[in-house]
Amino acid sequence: MKFAVLVFPGSNCDIDCYKAVEDTIGQPVDFVWHTATDLSAYDCILVPGGFSYGDYLRCGAIARFAPVMNEVRKAAEAGKYVLGICNGFQILTEAGLLPGALLRNNNMKFRCHSALLEVVNNKTAFTNQYSAGEVIDIPIAHGEGNYYCDDATLEQLKANNQIVFRYVAGNNPNGSVADIAGVSNERGNVVGMMPHPERAIDQILGSEDGKRMFTSILNAWREQHGAAVNG
Ligand SMILES: NC(=O)CC[C@H](N)C(=O)O
């Protein structure tokens, strides 16, 4: 299984994502520059966190026009796995590949600390190694993580099981609607989340709860391609 980690000017979690793929599942992974025009070689696209284009206008608002985003759209339409983390989530919502938008944190502060999340949907390609309702510890680091969508969209998200992660009750760090920390598209092959699983892959980092996101992806891909999980 082959992974791409996109790199925009200002990305700063690209190396962490690359290392997380190497360290958790040992699959081939390449950095792919934002000007790339072909992602056909990749099975999973990771859109990492950071400050693409200096967060000018709005986080992700400029990155979504990068040439590589046409290819991300094609990959998503082809059913490949696309995971946007933090600034990656912001870019995917700006690109219209995920519903909703990320606003400034309600307290107007950049929040950087560990966060407890509930795994709401464990049926996605990104979460199949967790139990439904499991509480996991994954760090956040953002200034614009306040997930917003209108009431009709929220009803759709609930009805289609598109809420993937929620901050546990009383621990919403940014004012997100319905405590949402991560959502999927309707098909479930595109997920965006504000917390950083790539920063939680080893106890030395304070948590290894993010590791199973990567093993989930490999597991889903192998199931889709008819290979045993450990085969
Ligand atoms: N860690 C990140 O990706 C941060 C995203 C964005 N720059 C923000 O502050 O919200």
UniProtKB/TrEMBL annotation:
Q: What does the record give as the reaction this protein catalyses?
A: N(2)-formyl-N(1)-(5-phospho-beta-D-ribosyl)glycinamide + L-glutamine + ATP + H2O = 2-formamido-N(1)-(5-O-phospho-beta-D-ribosyl)acetamidine + L-glutamate + ADP + phosphate + H(+); L-glutamine + H2O = L-glutamate + NH4(+)
**Species name for this entry?**
Paenibacillus abyssi
Q: Which residues form the active site?
A: C86, H196, E198
Q: Any idea where this protein resides?
A: Cytoplasm
Q: Which CDD domains match?
A: GATase1_FGAR_AT (cd01740)
Sorted alphabetically, which InterPro entries does this protein's record hold? Class_I_gatase-like (IPR029062), PRibForGlyAmidine_synth_PurQ (IPR010075)
Q: Which PROSITE patterns match?
A: GATASE_TYPE_1
User: What's a BP term from Gene Ontology annotated to this protein?
Assistant: 'de novo' IMP biosynthetic process
Function, please? Part of the phosphoribosylformylglycinamidine synthase complex involved in the purines biosynthetic pathway. Catalyzes the ATP-dependent conversion of formylglycinamide ribonucleotide (FGAR) and glutamine to yield formylglycinamidine ribonucleotide (FGAM) and glutamate. The FGAM synthase complex is composed of three subunits. PurQ produces an ammonia molecule by converting glutamine to glutamate. PurL transfers the ammonia molecule to FGAR to form FGAM in an ATP-dependent manner.
Pathway per the UniProt entry:
Purine metabolism; IMP biosynthesis via de novo pathway; 5-amino-1-(5-phospho-D-ribosyl)imidazole from N(2)-formyl-N(1)-(5-phospho-D-ribosyl)glycinamide: step 1/2
Keyword Hydrolase assigned: yes
Kindly provide the name given to this protein in its UniProt entry.
Phosphoribosylformylglycinamidine synthase subunit PurQ
Its EC number(s): 6.3.5.3, 3.5.1.2
